[in-house]
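pasting for the record
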Amino acid sequence: MKKPVVGHWQLVIGASLVILVWSFKHFPPVEMHPHLASQPLATTLPPGVPCSFMPFEITTTRFFAAAHALRFPDKSVEPIHGHNWRVKVTVSAPRLDALGCVMDFHELERQVDAIIAPLHNRHLNELPPFDGELNPSTENVAYHVAVKLALAEPVMLVSVEVWETDTNSAVYRP
C-alpha cells in the first residue's frame, strides 16, 4: 500500500486555513474607526487571550536616574551603584477611541512619570516596595511600574520594558 505524500507547504497552508476559519468563528468583528473602514476589521478578544493580539498599540519611553543594590539569598548585598534607567511602556486596545487613538499619549506619559518620579535620584533599596518586599532588580522595577498603572478600559497593558544600561533590559508582560 502506497502512503500519500503530503508536502511541508501543504501542511502549513492547511493548518493556516484551519486557524483562520477558527479565528473568524471565535473572534467576532467589532466596530472600527471610520477612517479605517477600508482596513480589515479588528476583533474582540475572549478573556485570557493576551492583549498582544490587539490591533492597536502605543508606546512611551521615560527616563530616571537611581541607585540600587541587589540583596542575595545568602543575605549579602552587592555594592550600591547607579543607573540611568529607561522605562518603555506599551499599551493596546481592540479599537480606537472617538479621536482615533488608543489613548492620549500625554496621559500615558503622566502616569508613567508619576510612578517613576519618586524613584528619581534616589536609592531604590530605601523606597517601597524595594525596601523589603521586592529586590530592586530591573525585572521588579518593570513589575512595579506595571502594577501602578491605572488604564481605563478598553486599554490594556502589553508590556513594560526597563533598561538599566543601554544593553541590558528586562520585560514584564501581564
